[in-house]
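In response to the reviewer comment on reproducibility (Comment 2.3), we provide here a single inverse folding case reported in full, input and output, so that an independent group could reproduce the run without further information from us. The structure tokens appear first.
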């Protein structure tokens, strides 16, 4: 019995040692996948700091443009507004380049061109391109009155630029990881009068003369960007932003990125998941086709017209149609995308 007692004690001691050793090894080698293989502890990702986008400020920038009057190429308002924007951007951007020249409109008229490109961290290879046209329609061809007079273009021209000017102000405060270029295109809205669904090739190519000029003469040699975002007619209270068909054709992954950001920010009722075809041509088509930069169009859709806002190319396109909340929804979404890109 003495021998048996000693054996029991010895067995118990060995068992305890084995138990403690097993617990130690289990603690040391525990993994979430249950395979017993050590897994490096996941390092917490630093929070991305996105500067505050101010809808009131964007609204003020839209109003500033409208206060110059119509900004159709060759007008006094076009010259004065262009001067103001260049001076403004020089305060915030690292570089500002002006492209000037002459282009020919659909009716044979020679027009002065002034593309404005502001850049942040121009030395960085990886870039994001943000685009809006700053010229306004030279006639109110969709109106029933004063059809031959130029429009104020608060939404069609002013809204996208107002948002980008507010983003420009914020880019100076907090630099994103990638380089950014803000491209304000000129002579976008001097196209041949047509319906929104017009598909005639000659008519379509009479639009977006500024981006066509830029595609042939990039502001820097061999310019490219990871992707681009075009803002057009994105300032009305009634605006719904559907996934625009041509954007889905050229750059569906960029559409997904932007709409996911909008959803994360709580704008899922404004940036809607359905795809609609209602744009015949816009600057993003030129940039995709000629520059091979995947670029999308954030552009307002109106259920009543099945196309653009009822103020489109009329004298009703003034500050009365501009909504701060819409400007802020679009601006915050774009900034979220820019600052989360790595």
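Designed residues, in position order:
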């Amino acid at each position: 019995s003495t021998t048996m007692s000693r054996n029991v004690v010895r067995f118990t001691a060995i068992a305890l040692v084995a138990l403690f050793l097993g617990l130690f090894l289990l603690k040391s080698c525990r993994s979430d996948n249950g395979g017993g293989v050590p897994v490096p502890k996941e390092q917490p990702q630093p929070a991305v700091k996105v500067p505050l986008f101010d809808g009131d400020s964007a609204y003020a920038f839209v109003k500033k443009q409208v206060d110059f009057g119509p900004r159709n190429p060759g007008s006094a308002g076009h010259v004065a507004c262009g001067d103001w924007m260049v001076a403004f951007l020089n305060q915030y951007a690292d570089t500002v380049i002006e492209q000037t020249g002459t282009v020919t409109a659909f009716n044979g008229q020679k027009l002065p061109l002034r593309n404005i490109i502001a850049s942040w961290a121009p030395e960085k290879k990886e870039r994001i391109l943000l685009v809006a046209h700053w010229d306004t329609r030279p006639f109110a061809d969709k109106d029933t009155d004063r059809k031959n007079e130029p429009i104020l273009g608060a939404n069609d021209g002013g809204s996208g630029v107002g948002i980008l000017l507010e983003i420009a102000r914020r880019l100076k405060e907090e630099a994103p990881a990638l380089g950014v270029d803000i491209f304000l295109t000129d002579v976008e809205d001097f196209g041949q009068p047509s319906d929104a669904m017009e598909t005639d090739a000659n008519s379509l190519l009479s639009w977006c003369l500024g981006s066509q000029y830029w595609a042939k003469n990039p502001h820097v040699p061999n310019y490219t960007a990871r992707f681009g975002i075009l803002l057009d007619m994105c300032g009305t209270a009634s605006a719904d932003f559907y996934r625009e068909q041509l954007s889905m054709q050229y750059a569906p992954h960029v559409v997904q990125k932007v709409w996911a950001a909008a959803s994360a920010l709580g704008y899922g009722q404004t940036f809607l998941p359905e795809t609609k075809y209602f744009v015949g041509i816009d600057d993003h088509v030129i940039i995709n086709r000629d520059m091979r930069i995947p670029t999308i169009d954030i552009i307002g859709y109106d259920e009543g017209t099945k196309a653009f806002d009822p103020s489109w190319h009329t004298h009703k396109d003034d500050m009365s149609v501009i909504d701060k909340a819409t400007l802020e929804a679009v601006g915050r979404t774009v900034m979220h995308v820019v600052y989360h890109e790595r």
